[in-house]
Design goal:
single chain; alpha+beta; Alpha-Beta Plaits; Calcium-transporting ATPase, cytoplasmic transduction domain A; 25 helices; 51% helix
């Protein structure tokens, strides 16, 4: 059967006669990797661009139209030692990338202008302003205006646009007082300069924009990187399917190019990317990601197959009923939508609270102006004082209080193997006081492992491992991994649905079903784990039984103990069998567990705990866990989870250890403590600064300096979030 690879879905037009593709690449860690990849790809004929983005671990390629098959780039990267997959940027991510670049340009313009305007202000600060010649003073003021006005017009766009949209909708937000303060400071400075006044406040306005843009960029950049990493992880999952394009020809195509009615080939060891019905073949399928049940299900003609199911033994032809976004089960979709809708109310409450800030600031500034006029001050002096109030109360420190801590904490969590999928995940995780674990794939490792290797002679086990390299079966892969086999046995033949056989020195070797190896009686007599899958190995007349199962994560027991030491409740909810869940709970020391639960049962349990005031952290990996992940106060998934669970979870943890769960809780608790400290610092600053500004003691320039000082204090305090986690 001829197999081709079709990546045309990912190819875009890059210009006249040019084509473009983005690849997600594993294993890119440093500048040396970047140079190696760029040199290796640029050396290919007709390649016009090869650029590596180290942050996102992606490669952008351009080449002359019609000259190269995109699959050749993936092969070339494999030769260089890197695994790559085609990547398609989501529209939301593309928008965020563009916004991040725009904010960075605005910040660069504002920072450059601030440095130059401050330099021009030094001669004014260093001497007695009244002793300077008016021509000298006006020259410095007009030169400052020449720099500050166009810079503010460009750099202030993120705030001006947001404020205009809010006012157009007859509402206010935090950008309205910022925009008013900046525009008043600039306008008043121009008026002061025209009238040859001693002071102008161009430096105050542009400095204010610089610090506010730092906070805005930090917040937006954290969200952009989170989305980019999540998208990269999905691409590295290789969401493709083997589609029949002829009677005996299949093409490996992206799932986005699969449609209902197409026929796909599902080989042993492959995970289905589509929903469909078996039309030919017989096999066993693992539906643990969908149902949580670890026992395999027999699949033959007419059996439904769902996306996420693993084909274990035979080859299947599947007629597609749903692909890509349409593969979600109706009940799961309904439960998930309901849970996400409930969470959005929490976000609306936070937004409503933040909007109260603007009218308070406006009222304070307006009352200041009217109060000074009432007490006999000139309109000029009253307006100057009002501008100082607007500047000194601009929410710079308040705007930096949360994103700076989030950025520092998310960086520390990433180093501990935790990725954030949600901007407010840190705050909610810090409040969690009860953890619900799924069992299969969460407390256990997603990969199978041999549990009775010590009971098999080393020489026989080594042969079994080499023979296993010739099979696609996941159980055989576990045997090969346990042995550490590197070289397969030459001439090995795989019999679909049965096993692998070969001959070595005239002795026949077999690995597969007990019936295939003549080991049925041995299996019946053996005392085997109820959760284990069995594969037999025969060497001539010798027979051996190899027991394979999903093992508990290596540090699972220590993690459970660490959570309990932090006075966090722990329980297990699993769709697996009673015996399997009971064994895991007893081994880990978990006092409360339930088996055979449905997605609706999990949500019911979470709602029951919510009613008692308990904040639940749900940790799960299967499609059946997605609704409960969304319904929980906060949620986590392992990187091996189903894509739906990864997309739903607030946090994703990497690697085999479970320790990132504890590390994430520790970091989030420290981060929440620092967020509250920063908010109190910002509030305390305003409590002290506003009366001083209203009294007329400070000028707009001093107000900007005070505002900047509070912002620096908030950022320095946020750096403490880097050290929080205790070892498990």
């Amino acid at each position: 059967m001829q197999v081709t690879r079709d990546f045309s879905h990912y190819v875009k037009e890059a210009g006249p006669g040019l084509q473009h593709i983005d690849l997600a690449v594993e294993g890119v860690h440093c500048a040396g990797c970047m140079a190696k990849i760029e040199r290796g790809l640029s050396a290919m004929p007709d390649v016009t661009l090869a650029r590596v983005n180290l942050t996102n671990k992606r490669v952008a390629l351009e080449w002359k139209e019609g000259t190269l098959d995109p699959a050749r780039f993936i092969d070339r990267l494999a030769e260089l030692g890197y695994k790559a997959y085609p990547f398609e940027t989501a529209s939301a991510e593309a928008t965020e990338v563009a916004e991040s670049r725009f904010l960075l340009r605005c910040l660069g313009v504002a920072a450059f202008a601030t440095m130059n305007v401050m330099m021009l202000s030094i001669p004014v600060w260093s001497g007695n302003v009244s002793d300077m010649l008016p021509e000298q003073r006006d020259f410095f003021h007009w030169l400052s205006a020449l720099i500050a006005l166009p810079a503010a017009a460009y750099a202030g766009q993120p705030f001006f646009r947001s404020a205009w949209r809010a006012l157009s909708n007859k509402t206010t937000n935090m950008d309205v007082p910022i925009s008013i303060g900046v525009c008043l400071a600039l306008g008043m400075s121009v008026v002061e300069t025209i009238h040859h006044a001693e002071h102008a406040y161009f430096d105050a306005a542009i400095m204010l924009l610089t610090f506010l843009l730092v906070g805005r960029f930090l917040d937006q950049n954290m969200r952009r990187r989170t989305r980019a990493v999540a998208g990269n992880l999905a691409a590295l999952k290789a969401e493709t399917a083997a589609k029949f394009v002829g009677p005996d020809e299949i093409s490996q195509v992206p799932v986005a190019a699969i449609h209902p009615g197409d026929i796909v080939l599902l080989r042993p060891g492959e995970r289905s990317a589509v929903d469909g019905t078996v039309i030919e073949g017989r096999s066993e399928i693992d539906q643990s990601l969908i149902t949580g049940e670890t026992l395999y299900v027999t699949a033959d003609r007419g059996t439904p197959v769902y996306a996420g199911s693993m084909n274990v033994s035979g080859t299947l032809r599947v007629r597609v009923s749903a692909a890509s976004e349409a593969t979600l089960l109706a009940e799961i979709t309904r439960l998930l939508d309901n849970a996400l809708q409930a969470r959005s109310r929490y976000m609306r409450l936070a937004d409503r609270a933040s909007r109260l800030y603007a009218p308070v600031v406006h009222a304070a500034a307006l009352l200041t102006v009217l109060g000074w006029v009432f007490w006999g001050a000139s309109w000029h002096d009253a307006v100057v004082t009002g501008v100082a109030v607007l500047i000194i109360t601009c929410p710079c420190a308040l705007g930096l209080a949360i994103p700076t801590v989030q950025t520092v904490a998310s960086g520390a969590m990433f180093k501990s193997g935790v990725l954030l999928n949600s901007g407010d995940a840190i705050e909610r995780l810090a409040e969690a006081n009860h953890v619900i674990f799924d069992k299969t794939g969460t407390l256990t490792l997603p990969d199978l492992e041999v549990v009775n290797a010590s009971g098999i002679p080393a020489d026989a086990f080594a042969l079994a491992g080499r023979l296993a390299l010739s099979s696609h079966h996941p159980v055989a892969a576990a045997v090969a991994t346990a042995v550490g086999a590197k070289s397969p046995i030459v001439g090995a033949v795989e019999e679909a649905g049965q096993g692998v056989r070969a001959s070595v020195d005239g002795v026949e070797l077999r690995l597969g079903r007990p019936s295939f190896c003549g080991a049925e009686q041995l299996v019946r007599d053996a005392e085997l784990d109820a959760e284990a899958s069995v594969v037999a190995f025969s060497r001539g007349a010798e027979r051996f039984v190899i027991s394979v199962r999903q093992g508990l994560r290596p540090d699972a027991k220590a993690v459970i103990a660490a959570l309990q030491a932090r006075r966090i409740g722990v329980e297990i909810l699993s769709g697996d069998r009673e015996a399997a869940v009971t064994a895991a709970a007893q081994a880990l020391g978990v006092p409360e567990w339930r088996a055979g639960v449905t997605p609706a049962d999990k949500i019911a349990r979470i709602e029951e705990l919510k009613a008692r005031g308990i904040k639940v952290l749900m940790v799960g990996d299967g499609m059946n866990d997605a609704p409960s992940l969304a319904a929980a106060h906060v949620s986590m998934s392992p990187i091996s989870a189903a894509h739906l669970s990864q997309a739903t979870a607030d946090l994703v943890f990497l690697g085999k250890p479970l320790a990132p769960v504890v590390a994430a809780i520790d970091y989030s608790r420290k981060a929440l403590h620092l967020m509250r400290q920063n908010l109190w610092l910002a509030i305390g600053y305003n409590f002290l600064a506003v009366p001083i500004a209203i009294s007329g003691i400070v000028t707009p320039l001093i107000a900007a300096a005070a505002m900047s000082g509070s912002s620096i204090l908030v950022m320095l305090n946020a750096l403490r979030a880097r050290s929080a986690s205790r070892r498990v």
